[in-house]
Amino acid sequence: MTSLASRPCFQAIIPATLALLLAFSATDFCAAASSTFYGDLGYDGKVNVVDVQCLNLVVLWHASLADVPPPTCLAGPRADADLNCDNELSFIDMIIEYRLALEGKLPAEIDADQDGVHDACNAVFES
Predict the structure, then answer these.
(1) Rounded Cα–Cα distance for residues 45 and 110 (Å)
(2) In the chain, where the domains are located
(3) Are 31 and 105 in contact (CB under 8 A)?
């Protein structure tokens, strides 16, 4: 059995994630989209590069199908990481998290009301 770290998809994500962490580690990108802080996986009140890294780990954990607990950076349920509310954890969720952390908003194509929450998730994340 090969380790997760030896898989090509894992090896490709690590350099990009490290580059983002180094480039933005001193900056606090806050995108508090709603009262539940959509995208805030660590429950620290902000969406930033730490949440991006956490989601990368959660998606890799989910894809590995390993019988181990989720990464400890995920403070809430697995559903918190499903940022497009399609009941899957995928690269799409990672792109959404990147946009939230680095730009502070989502494109109008997936967030028509520009509230910072994917349109498919409005009923879940808005109070």
Answers:
(1) 23
(2) 4-125
(3) yes
